[in-house]
Amino acid sequence: MRPTKAKGRLRKYRAILLFGAPGSGKGTQGRILGSIPSFYGFSSGEAFRKLRPESELGRIFREYSNRGQLVPDQPTIRLWRESMEQALKEGRFNPKSDTLLLDGIPRNVNQARLLQAALDVRFVFYLSCPDMSKLVARLRRRAVIENRLDDANIDVIRERLETYDRETRPVLEFYGPKVVRRIDATQTPIGVLREILGFLAQGPP
Asked: CA-CA to 30 of 20 to 30 Å: which in 1, 17, 84, 138?
């Protein structure tokens, strides 16, 4: 997806990133906030899981997720662009009035760089959960509730958490303290939502 033009220049899409380790609650917050008018939510994980298993991107997703690894940058960015183009075409996303809620993208610093020309990131809400045992418990519970096979294997879970620490956490430094807001993810979902809404009410920095 290429940004639209505004008076002869490229328009960046206003965006908020939901950030945190697997199991930190990004998906829950994304679904809640995405139901509010003027917000449009995109979850890369959900988008990949909705692909036909026999499709090119579907096969790539299964190959990497079954090992607990991140899908490479090129297919991840491609999926995002194709999804956003479809949302624009169908009128589900209006870049003039809507704010993007991004969950699961960018997943590393290179993806953040690739998206710089398209996104005006106003906030990065970092759902922090230093207790890895709680994340593991959440992921295993989610595997049962949502039939998520990629969350059922303890070795895959550990690989996902190690991959997050190694590849995804540096994204926080890329965006910097001006836009990053740390939120305790061990709270109830309502408590997390209350903090996010409080920051949104104050407006961007």
From this structure: 1
